[in-house]
């Protein structure tokens, strides 16, 4: 009753992107409700919210799970715009989905107009090693080229599921703190300038 | 010269009784040697005529002879050719050109011509002649012809002679003359006699004339006198007129002044009237009748409730009256305002104090009476499941509400008149009620627990070995329950009687909830009404909003379901109650929610503890609880479905699904799926409902087309239908140029943004859905155009690329 909502509680907006059937919804549902949904049903768009403790601080995470199959890429513009961090998911068992990440990355950068947007390249379905099509090295080199971390997950076994979400939230939080600091820094600089002048 | 003149006069003109007036020695142009004289001559007889002669010598030795002559009146032009030239032209029967030998002579001649022709009825035209020549004086002639004094004296007279001669002009004169001449037939033969007769007649006439002159002298003098008198009269009149004029002049000034004054008076009058109107308005609006003042001053609550309410509204009217600009600076007005303010303070003090006391009093009173059963309104519940009577009652607050209801009007007035006091009062109410409820709930839940313990104990005693069977039965129950449509016991205020064994928990919970729910709803309804939570500009400060949902995670599963119920009910009733604009709805909802959570602070914890207690008692009963929860969910589905606001439905189903997914209760999987499905349905409904708008007319048109096709009209024949002709299509398509569509989409986005609440975070989802819907509609319309109007060349004025561009732009601008 005494708690004031919104006050001091950070809200991080995460967007799930990637081709259809790579397991975006599965990752989200595993993270949200600790469950693995076997039935596949293509998502259009769905929103989730959860309270988690991130490094000792209670924060809220908003997850926007998006459609992999979208007729028109421009429809994504709006939610890309609203996102603060992105989990770009592909399936290690499907090379096409890995190739598609390039396009998603480009669209996000174009819409956000920010090279350093918090972003994780996620290779899902790591439990299906025998069907692997995308090699670890290949994925890592792309991540390196983009300057983003690469993590392999399994929505089925829950491997690294929390990790990708928490890593991304940390990146977002750091980014926000940096933003604030640089704002303060700019202000300082400005005052300095003024005194010099 | 003079000699020449003399010679000419003597040799030529004297012979013909003529008088030489002026001469000029001229020669024919280009024949300098042959000289001649131009002579102006007048006849001696009366009336004299002037003739110009050309006189010349036919040979050197011969005498001077008249060669040509023109009557002066026959000459039409005398042309000097040039001011300084010696030439002279005379236009008569034809043009004659000469050159003078002496300029002086020439000038004089022309002057004379001019002078003598002056008296003629038909004068010649004088061209190119210096001005000084054209005078009627003949000084130059006289001065140059000093030698011929006689002549000049003669012709000086001649004009006068000419003027004395009067031609006979009238017929009468002619007649008279002829009759005179008839009488004197001898006149011609005997002029002398005639003369004599005439002079005699003349003298007679003269005499008569003189006589008549003499006779008329007195008349003349009389006339003179009369004239003098008349002149005097005229002078008097004139002086009189002057006086009048002056007087009039004075009056005019006076009149002007009067006019001005009149205008000023009118103005003053009008001003005074307006002032009076204003004053009347101000006074009537600012004055409260003395009875009301008296009531405000002396009223005592609760006796004078109604009077006070009337007086209060009167006061509100006076206080809230908007004075015309500037009038509020009047000291009388400010005084009256002060007076009103005093009354206002008094009013708010009176009402606030009384209500404050009343709240506290009621709080204490009910708390006391609650301990004695039967005093307060209570619902009793008896369960016969175990054969033991277990009563536990939750005291209703109906009596308090009844007690307070009459003050609703006063509260409303207070809210407007003194919002601070109102807020304070609200706080007091909330606090009192919350303590009261806390206490009530505590006993209530304790009773419930007691009855559980007792019942459980008894149950175990009576059926010591029934536990496993119980569990199986319960399972069966649940399955049967899932198949049937469970009765909406709680929400329909019906009692749901659980059947079979092991229903003790169910019944207790049922009892608890069935009592809690109407109580909460009643309290909410009362608060909304009494505290005017639904007002637009509610001055109530936002009391700390309890993050109800925040605690969901930490609560036990069963509890969270109940809590959801409370939550959603609050939301839903809040939004159905409020009839305001949708953007205010959320604010009102928040307020209702905040107040309710302030009033029921302990409800959640109590419920929580009850549920954990239940769990402690028997983990088996958790199953029952779940059944319970599922039942509640059903009710919620129903309730949510009845809401008017689509977006609230969408959000609530979304939230419900989320809650259910968190619970991870396998029994509820069905409900979970249902929630998800309902959420998707609601989303679809919301999207289609709000989506019709950007292309309303187009949609309408093509709905018609579709209907026709559906009714069996061939697609190729659609365009022959009146309402769906190509012109109509063109007209409709014209109404949606790309620019309009973009505007419509932006508008829609803003509206969606406004509708959806932050908490559920569905904006992106809804918007994505709308984008999809829009594109689907677009392609559908395009398809219909292609199919039904294949050769019309009509296309929508925007392309799919345009739409995507608009979406991107909207994304970028938010």
Automatic annotation (TrEMBL), chain A:
It is a lipid-anchor. PROSITE patterns: RAB (PS51419), RAS (PS51421), RHO (PS51420). Keywords: Cell membrane, GTP-binding, Hydrolase, Lipoprotein, Membrane, Methylation, Nucleotide-binding, Prenylation. It is an enzyme of class 3 (hydrolase). It is found in: Cell membrane. GO terms for biological process: signal transduction. PANTHER family: RAS, DI-RAS, AND RHEB FAMILY MEMBERS OF SMALL GTPASE SUPERFAMILY (PTHR24070). Belongs to the small GTPase superfamily. Ras family. This is small monomeric GTPase. It comes from Trichogramma brassicae.
From TrEMBL, chain B:
This is Exocyst complex component Sec3 PIP2-binding N-terminal domain-containing protein. CDD domains: PH-EXOC1 (cd14683). SMART domains: Sec3-PIP2_bind (SM01313). The lineage of its organism: Eukaryota, Metazoa, Ecdysozoa, Arthropoda, Hexapoda. It comes from Trichogramma brassicae. Signal peptide: none annotated. The keyword Transport applies. InterPro entries: Sec3-PIP2_bind, Sec3_C, Sec3_CC. GO terms for biological process: exocytosis; Golgi to plasma membrane transport. GO terms for cellular component: exocyst; plasma membrane. Keywords: Coiled coil, Exocytosis, Transport. Residues 31-120 form the Exocyst complex component Sec3 PIP2-binding N-terminal domain. Belongs to the SEC3 family. One of its GO terms (molecular function) is phosphatidylinositol-4,5-bisphosphate binding.
